[in-house]
Amino acid sequence: MIVAANKVVKMHYSVMDNDNNSIDNSFGGEPLHFIVGTGYLISGLENALLGKQPGDTLSVKVEPEDGYGERHDNLMQAVPKSMFEGMEIEVGMQFRASTDDGDQSVMIIDIQDEEAAYQRVRKLNESHIGLTDEELAKYLKTAKTTHYKYKKDSIADYLHRQLGMDVSFLYKEKTKLSPEEVKAARQAAAETTAKKKAESTLGRILRAARELLSQNVPPTQVSVAAICGRSERTVRRYWSEVMSHPVIRSASIYSPPHECPVGA
């Protein structure tokens, strides 16, 4: 039986570069299984197999346009080694990665240590930013002594996502906060959280009151609570602020606050 469209083929293979260095092969393991014509193989190899029979051997040189296309340096991406935790990685290893364009085959073409990655930062700075070496060193030192991780637009996130650097070194020299500073930081965080929660609740109550006014219905604590999904007790706490709000005060029709029992 010859190799043709829609036939199942099993074969061993060896992939070599232009210098005859082995990149990948199946010998010593299971052969490759595929259906001809489904696009599983690159066209340059699949076309060379057409018409072959069991037992045939062949050597094929695949041009870029018949393989994975021309090399595009702008498609290279640096990723942190932590993505391969527990694995011994080396140049030439291939993986499948999920991207916005679907699953793609990726290959490791270089492995850099932290110093090499730092040199890339320096070159990037020289080409696009223009900081002096002293300014760049000061910027990185600031990142090192920070108490909290930077947000996504920070240097730490940039080094991690774009250059693949392990940024743990930025946080090794933390200065411990004193008990008083820890207490103050927690208090400030609690106050910020409470303020945001209060603003959110007030916003919901105001939207409910405006909705009633738009329907020419006088807002009361009971009706507003029913619309905004908050308890009457919660609405009552914000009622004076709601009634004094410019949007509510400027409305032509609204009824006096409805007084609910304290135990409501």
Write the layout of secondary structure elements.
Layout: E1 8-11, E2 14-16, E3 22-25, E4 32-35, H1 43-49, E5 94-99, E6 102-107, H2 114-129, H3 133-144, H4 155-163, H5 179-214, H6 221-228, H7 232-243, H8 246-249
Antiparallel strand pairs: 1-4, 2-3, 5-6
Helix pairs in contact: 5-6, 5-7, 6-7
Task: Describe this protein's structure.
This protein has 264 residues and is an alpha+beta fold. It folds into four domains: 8-66; 75-107, no CATH class; 114-171, no CATH class; 179-249, Arc Repressor Mutant, subunit A (Orthogonal Bundle), CATH 1.10.10. It has helices at 43-49, 114-129, 133-144, 155-163, 179-214, 221-228, 232-243, 246-249; strands spanning 8-11, 14-16, 22-25, 32-35, 94-99, 102-107. A two-stranded antiparallel sheet has the order 1-4. The chain has a two-stranded antiparallel sheet with strand order 2-3. A hairpin with a 5-residue loop joins β2 and β3 (22-25). α5 (179-214) packs across α6 (221-228). The longest helix has 36 residues, at 179-214. Mean pLDDT is 77; it is low at 144-153 and 252-264.
Quick synopsis:
The protein is α+β, with helices and mostly antiparallel strands. The protein has helices at 43-49, 114-129, 133-144, 155-163, 179-214, 221-228, 232-243, 246-249; strands at 8-11, 14-16, 22-25, 32-35, 94-99, 102-107. α5 packs across α6 (221-228), α5 packs across α7 and α6 crosses α7.
